[in-house]
Specification:
Length: 66
Amino acid sequence: MAELWKSLPSWVRNIVIPVLVLVLAWNVIAFVFGVVGALLSIVIKLLVVVGIAAAVVILVKKAAKS
């Protein structure tokens, strides 16, 4: 591996490789934030549905008493 690294031109080692690493890191970070955002979105939607269902149950029980 060291021989391969040393065989690369200096402009590849100093410019191309760091840019590729930054792009890859950016994509990994964007993926992680996307997954976390999607999970949070699902949790919020589930909480809204559960809240609406609880309100409907409470209203139906109150309507049944009267």
